[in-house]
Amino acid sequence: MRTLFGYFRSSAAYRVRIALALKGLDYVYEAINLKPGVTEQRSDAYLKLNPQGRVPFFVDGDVRISQSPAIIEYLEEAYPDVALLPKSVADRAYARQLANVVACDIHPLNNLSVLMWLKADLGADESAVQKWYTHWVLEGFKALEKTLSHDNRTGKFCIGDTPGLADVYLAPQIWNARRFDVPLKDFPTLLRIDTACNDLEAFKAAAPENQPDTPVN
Ligand SMILES: N[C@@H](CCC(=O)N[C@@H](CS)C(=O)NCC(=O)O)C(=O)O
Fold first, then answer.
1. Cβ contacts of 174-183, under 8 Å, gap ≥ 24
2. pLDDT digits (tens, 9 = 90+) for 195-213
3. In the chain, where the domains are located
4. Residues flanking ligand 1, CB < 6 Å
């Protein structure tokens, strides 16, 4: 049995939901409420499972994994029938390069605990936090836009006409950027790819607005 511990608007959990959906793998969804004031990620029961106190966390039989990139690479190796990575070694590296702009350079600076720490420990106000968030998204998106708009591997999706690893990372980051009102007009290639992704059932099923823990209003 497969279980994904996630939160509807965690973009790291969103990535894993997309990967699972693209591969057609079913799973039980266990919601961990990250909302400030609730913070189920810090409950004893959850910390026993994942000492880092973050989502996503994935269970597949005896296999237990945290960190969305590790989970997604596991899925790719354990369930290769629908591949997220391209065939050639060079293209696989390129897919990871695109994904890591989000996974390593945008998301770690902008996740919930970083934003909370800026406020609570460094005394940043809402507008400073907004400025911080926007800055790091724009930096990463500028690089992705430049790369994708010039690379001849770019197709309907980040690489060719089949959704893959880079799209799994890009679409949740765009969703998150919209949530924080980051201006996206300078990223036409990213927006075009995002639209193509969101037309697919797998991306729709994984979207934050369609999860069991999505608030009703
Ligand atoms: N690098 C980790 C990041 C996971 C992460 O930061 N998750 C956030 C939600 S997107 C979280 O659980 N935050 C809870 C907290 O910081 O207390 C991954 O990709 O899985």
1. 175/11, 175/14, 175/207, 175/208, 176/9, 176/11, 176/110, 176/137, 177/137, 177/141, 179/9, 180/130, 180/133, 180/134, 180/137, 181/130, 182/133, 182/134, 182/137, 182/138, 183/134
2. 999 999 999 999 999 999 9
3. 2-82, 89-203
4. 10-12, 34, 41, 53-56, 67-69, 111-113
